[in-house]
Design brief:
With 374 residues, this protein is α/β, with parallel strands linked by helices. The protein has one domain: TIM Barrel, CATH 3.20.20.150. The protein is built from eleven helices and ten strands. It has an eight-stranded parallel β-barrel, surrounded by five helices. Helix 8 links the parallel strand 9 and strand 10. The radius of gyration is 20 Å and the shape is globular.
Length: 374
């Protein structure tokens, strides 16, 4: 079977979210008891043995809470020792800068945020480089969590200008360091602000096009980290998002999580907060799997997910395993669809028969999941 690249996120392994739900549901995963290197060991020992042999595992982490100057070398050693790879790194700027980060109208915050992102990138090319996959180099993702605002003023245009200039600067730094990474925007409509710069996939694509035009950035290694749940949150179509990304050659990384509403079983969906369920077996995921298969996408598929507030450690690990297997089951189902027949019924306007084809694919995917899970 063809190698399938899946990456697991450090932040999935937490003791609990807190707030309205317990903050210490999984005490052995507290920051006092479990560090980033320890999480790599859990993935290797508890997750990897339950996955198909064709799955290669990667790892994702935020600077500076999850990887930093003090632990980057140890993380790289652990990944190499366990036969895993660095799949994605991202500045955790949202944890430090609440007024726009690199887009901030406060020049002091903006300067600090620019420096923060630069340090995050330096470590990926520094001690973490030994943990790169030789062919599937990591993606450096900019999540827009700090690129937000809550007051409608003309200052929003200035924020957007700051954002373009500073992301262009980061891309130029990356090129000087080697030009080997994929640079991606991860759009989100809200959180941690009521309104965000770069809220949608289309916004991210336009943004990169503008950086190419205005700053001479080579957009061939730039694109979108598509996160299914972020589009679901506001009722957008993440299947069509995929079409746009492929059409613009900007699908460079994926987060396969879900709000859950589209499988008819678990609750969530438009208007809800970011639930971060794992991958689901459903028709939309099968359609996306088919699209990326036809486009030849073979990079990392990340699982940006959270355990449920009531899960213990064993149950939380099981959620991660289920997420990977669910995607593999959807991908196998997509490969088995008779696309000639599907296209024929669509051309004949027989959409009920097209529904039957996709529903049968969902049944096939669930049967495949059951076999893989055993």
């Amino acid at each position: 079977m063809e190698t399938s690249f899946h990456s697991i996120c450090k932040w999935t392994f937490n003791a609990g979210k807190g707030g309205f739900v317990p903050s210490m549901m999984r005490p052995s995963w507290s920051s006092e008891n479990l560090d980033t290197v320890g999480i790599i060991g859990i993935i290797k020992d508890k997750v990897a043995p339950r996955l198909p042999k064709n799955v290669t595992l990667g790892f994702e982490a935020h600077y500076n809470g999850e990887y930093n100057e003090d632990n980057a070398a140890d993380i790289a050693d652990a990944l190499v020792d366990e036969g895993m790879y660095l799949a994605m790194a991202t500045p955790g700027a949202h944890s430090h800068f609440a007024y726009g980060g690199i887009s901030s109208l406060d020049p002091k915050e903006r300067a600090l945020a620019v420096e923060f992102g630069s340090r995050a990138l330096d470590l990926v090319y520094g001690p973490l480089k030994k943990a790169w996959h030789p062919k599937k180099h990591p993606t450096f993702v900019l999540w827009n969590g700090s690129f937000g605002y809550d007051v409608a003023t003309v200052g929003i245009a200035k924020m957007y200008g700051h954002l373009k200039r500073n992301v262009a600067g980061l891309c130029k730094q990356e090129k000087k360091l080697g030009g080997k990474l994929m640079m991606a925007i991860e759009p989100k409509p809200n959180e941690g602000h009521p309104a965000m710069l770069l809220p949608t996939v289309a916004s991210a694509i336009v943004f990169w096009k503008k950086l190419g035009e205005e700053y001479g950035i080579d957009v061939k290694r730039t694109g979108v980290n598509k996160e299914f749940g972020h589009s679901e949150m506001i009722g957008l179509d993440h299947v069509y998002d995929t079409v746009e990304e492929i059409d613009n050659s900007m699908l460079v990384h994926m987060h396969l999580n879900s709000q859950g509403y589209n499988d008819g079983i678990i609750l969530g969906g438009p208007g809800k907060y970011d639930i971060d369920n794992g991958t689901r077996v459903n028709g939309m995921n099968i359609a996306i799997a088919g699209l990326i298969q036809q486009a030849g996408y073979s990079r990392w598929k990340g699982h940006d997910m959270q355990a449920r507030a009531y899960d213990n450690e064993e149950q939380a690990i099981d959620r991660v395993v289920r997420s990977v297997l669910s995607w593999e089951a959807c991908a196998i189902a997509a490969e088995n669809i008779d696309y000639k027949n599907l296209n024929k019924v669509l051309e004949n306007r027989e959409t009920a028969k097209a529904e039957d084809i996709m529903r049968n694919a969902v049944v096939d995917a669930q049967k495949t999941f059951n076999k893989l899970y055993k």
